[in-house]
Amino acid sequence: MYLGIDLGTSGVKSMLMDENQALVAESSSRPIGVSRPHRGWSEQHPEQWWDAVCESLDALATSHPKAMGAVKGIGLSGQMYGATVLDERDTPIRPAILWNDTRTEKECADLEARAPDIRRIAGRRPTPGVTAPKLAWLRDHEPDAFRRVRTVLLPKDYLRLKLSGEKASDMADASGTMWLDLAARDWSDTLLAATDLDRRQMPMLYEGIDPTGHLRAELAERWGISSRPVIAGGGGDNACGACGTGVFRDGEGTVSLGTSGVLFLATGEVRPSYDHAIETLCHSMPDVWHQMSVILSATSCINWLSKVVKRPASELVAELGTSLGAPSPVLFVPFLDGCWSPRADVEIRGALLGLQHSCDDEVLTRAVLQGVAFALRECADAFRAAGSTIGSLLAIGGGSRSELWLSMIATSLGVDLRVPEASELGAAYGAARLALIAESGESPESVLTSPRIKRVISPVQNLAPAYADAYDTWLSVMPEVRRASVALGNAA
Q: Which residue out of 237, 250, 337, 345 is catalytically annotated?
C-alpha cells in the first residue's frame, strides 16, 4: 500500500493506493486559510499545514486501519515556491510567503543585477512567485528574521521534516526556487550568494523517485502503520500531477483547471525561455525537464463571480450548456491576483469590459470562462515562441468537468484536449506513484502509465477565427487595464 500526500493552498488531500495503482481511500483536511495583510501579500503558517496533514491521516487511519497498516511508501506533493524559514531549532520564524504572493517585484530586478547569469543558470528570469526574491525581501525588510534563518524549505519539505526529521527536497520543486543550476541539477552557489545565503541553509537534493528517509517511529505508531515507510523525494504539485497522468515523455502535456490554471509540457532537454516569464524546471525523474506557465486565477475566477452574483459556481457554468457559441461580447481579464506568467506583472488586476444593460449572469459567466481561456492561449503562445510544439493536452482539475470550457480552451489554443476516465488522477496520486517507485525500485516507465481517455474535445474550427479575433482584442486592452490597475492600486 502507498500513501500520497498533497499539500494544496486550500488544504491537504491524502490518498491510499494499492500495488496495482488502484485508489483505496482518500481524505481531505478542513480548509486552510490564507492571510493577506497587505495588497499582493499571501501567507500561511507552516503549522497549519502540519495540523492539516495530521487531520487527514488520522481520518484515514480511522476509516481504513488495515490499509494504513500496510503502507510501505509515502510520496509528498505540494504547493510550490513557498518560503518556509526555520531557526536553529527548526521552528518557523514567521508565516511562509506563498507562491501567489506578489510583493517582490523590486527584489526580482535586484537579483538580475546581482547575478547577471541568473537566466542562463536557472533557465528563466526571476518573477515574484518564486522563492529566491522572497528571501531577498526578508533580508531587506525583516533583517532580524533573516539573520535567524538556518534552513529554507519548500512547503511539502517542511512536512517531510515533520514526518521524518530529514531536511531534503527534490529536483522538480527545488528548481522553482531560482537557486538551482537547471542543467547540473544542483544548487548554484552564485544564485544563493545573490540572496546572501549558502548551501548550509539548503536541504539535500534528491530526484523525485529517490528515497529520502523513513517515517518517524512515533508517527507510524500513531497511524497504525506496521513498519517505517520510506518517503520518496516527491515533487511540486504540478510535477506530481504530471506523474499522476503519466506525462513525462518529450512533448506530452497537460492543462490544469484548478484554483490556478497551469499549462505543463514535458521536455527531454533544458528548454529555457528568456523573453517570457514561463518556467523551465526539472521533472520528478532524472534527465527529464518540463516547461510550465501558471495563471494565478482560474476556477477561482468563477468562485469570485459566484460570490458577486450570489449563485453557486456549478449552477452558473451548467446554465451555459455544453455547446460552444460565438465569443462573448464582454471581455474579462482574469488577473485577480496579478499576472505571474507569461507576463510577469504584479500590478495588473482583473477587469470586465464592454458591460451594458443587457448583461446577465450568463453573459458574465461566459466572459469569465473565456478570459481564462485567453490567458491560457497567451501561455501557449509563449511556449511556442520558446521552441516547443504543443500537440494534444490532457485536461485535468475541477474545471475540466465543463465541456463548454474545454471546448473554449481547445478552440482558443488550437489543440485537442483529452479528458481522462479516472477522477482520482492528480498530485496525490502522482506522489503515491513516486512512493511506489522509491520503495520497489520499479522503473518510472512501468509505473507512470498514461490514463484511459474518456473523451476528446477538439477545436470548433468554424469558430476558431472569431475566437482568434476576440483574443487579439483581449490582448490589445492589456496596456489600459494595467494603467488603471496601477492608478487604482496607488490610490488605495
A: 237
